[in-house]
Specification:
Elements: E1 3-5, E2 9-14, E3 21-27, E4 35-39, E5 48-50, E6 56-57, E7 64-66, E8 72-74, H1 77-86, E9 91-96, H2 108-117, E10 119-121, E11 128-131, E12 135-139, E13 142-147, E14 152-158, E15 166-171, H3 174-180, E16 187-189, H4 190-203, E17 217-220, E18 223-224, H5 235-248, E19 254-262, H6 266-277, E20 283-285
Parallel strand pairs: 4-9, 11-19, 14-19, 16-17
Antiparallel strand pairs: 1-10, 2-3, 3-9, 4-5, 6-7, 7-8, 11-20, 12-13, 13-19, 14-15, 17-18
Helix pairs in contact: 1-2, 1-3, 1-5, 5-6
This protein binds zinc ion.
Length: about 290
């Protein structure tokens, strides 16, 4: 059965990249509509943006989607991850602003908000995308693969300089994702945060304006400078799992298959999905 949120809930806060405030209303939607964003503040005739992989546009260090009128919404990945964690298939997300608020840097506050009102069951079968043959995307050291698998499994690997190989491997389901993954915060290195902030301001393409010690775990000299933001020592890879599965929600259904990633980034998640859909005979909707 497909689901939606039981009733409207709202939250607000600053965007990770724009630094600007936005108000978000998550509202029930009909079966078959999928997850859609609706900009309330834009000038375009049609401000609806379907949350689908072929609507992704390039923006540094986040997932940004746009419609044919050029209306966009940025940093959708944690809200999309919250939909996976709670089992939501259909949702209308109204936004007064340009970017989903970063909140505490994790998906937990959005999951808690959805759980506070619960779900409503709708008619119709859930959509499942079955992987039929291996598909591989590679760009430099970043790799993203899909493989056939009886279920849904992830094999996520990152290699942070100070920590060596940090993997997260195994079967995945919404309950496990909610317990182990959604509370892991965004993270970054101090040098990788302050320099893009300054360059972004200079180029008038703001990135990470809202990044700080309340919205991310920040590393310097090989250790977190705000360790209270960590839930587990391997939160770096847990947040990577959060971002990857959040991005994979742009497929528009569940996956029957296995995901294998090495040093992934949002851009490789997007390219991996595009490679899958553009490979003949590699997938089918069940
Ligand atoms: Zn993230």
């Amino acid at each position: 059965m497909q689901n939606t949120i039981a009733k409207k809930v709202s939250f607000s806060g600053r965007g990770m990249h724009s630094g600007r405030n936005a108000i978000v209303h998550m509202k029930p939607a009909d079966a078959g509509n999928g997850i859609r964003f609706h900009r309330l503040d834009g000038k375009a005739m049609d401000n609806w943006i379907p949350a689908l992989w072929d609507r992704v546009i390039r923006y540094p260090a986040c997932t940004c989607i746009a419609n044919e009128h050029g209306t966009s919404v940025r940093t959708v990945e944690h809200l999309m991850a919250a939909c996976y964690a709670t089992g939501i298939d259909n949702l209308d997300v109204e936004i007064e602003g340009e970017e989903i608020p970063i909140l505490d840097g994790s998906a937990a506050p959005i999951v808690d908000l959805i759980d506070s009102v619960g779900l409503r069951e709708l008619g119709g079968k859930r959509k499942i995308l079955e992987i039929l043959k291996p598909v591989h995307y590679e760009n430099d050291h970043r790799k993203f693969s899909f493989e056939p698998y009886d279920g849904f499994a992830v094999d996520i690997n990152i290699y942070p300089a100070e920590y060596g190989h940090m993997p997260w491997t195994g079967d995945m389901n919404p309950e496990l994702f909610k317990q182990e993954i959604v509370a892991a915060k965004a993270w970054g290195r101090l040098k990788d945060i302050w320099l893009p902030k300054i360059v972004g301001n200079f180029l008038k393409k703001p990135v990470l304006r809202g990044a700080g010690l309340n919205t991310a775990v920040v590393y310097a000299f090989g250790r977190p400078i705000n360790p209270s933001g960590l839930k587990h020592t391997n939160d770096m890879v847990r947040h990577k799992v959060l971002d990857i599965i959040g991005d994979l929600q742009l497929i528009g259904g569940d996956i029957q298959g296995k995901i294998i990633c090495h040093s992934s980034a949002h851009v490789t998640n997007h390219s991996g999905m595009a490679t899958l859909f553009n490979t003949e005979g590699a997938w089918r909707w069940q």
